[in-house]
Amino acid sequence: MLAEQARIDRADALVLAFPIYWWSLPGLLKGWIDRVFVNGWAIEYGPDTPMVKKLGHLPVHLLALGAADDDAFDRHGYAKAMRTQIDYGIFDYCGAKVVTSALLLDSESGGAQAHLQKAWAVGQGLFQAEMLAG
Question: Please, are residues 99 and 55 in contact by the beta-carbon 8 Å criterion?
Fold first, then answer.
């Protein structure tokens, strides 16, 4: 856990690219978040102290790959539910800014090339921002 926190502390940004399992994060990724984003590191609170969000310096990029199409996500409210749960419920709760939150859907119907281009664009944007800052 400490090694993972140190990796994130050294990073310019956190990029999570993951498949959508049962309309959410895969269990392994959720478990990693549960163990790494803990009280004292990602947030700080106690019975007599107000909560402090500690990851305000961390830009986050989320690329979620799913097999269902946009209509299924819209019809059932899954896109909103995922953003509420992941973007706000995890990252905003810790103060991290979600810069990119992309649902790369309908991945089994020939949309893979467009998804690769989106992922590439996010990566390019990260490196361009780093070059401009340096």
Answer: no
Is pTM, for the whole model, over 0.90? no
Backbone angles phi, psi at 111, to 5 degrees: -90, 5
Question: Count of CB atoms within 10 A of residue 66's CB?
Answer: 23
Q: Which domain holds residue 75?
A: 2-133
**DSSP secondary structure string, 71-112?**
HHHHHHTHHHHHIIIIIIIIIIHHT-EEEEEEEE--TTTT-H
> Between 2-10 and 27-36, two packed helices, what is the crossing angle to 10 degrees?
90
How many domains is the chain partitioned into structurally?
Answer: 1
Tell me the CATH number at 29: 3.40.50.360
Positions in the chain short of pLDDT 70? 107-111, 127, 129-134
pLDDT of residue 44: 97
Q: Strand pairing partners for 98? A: 60
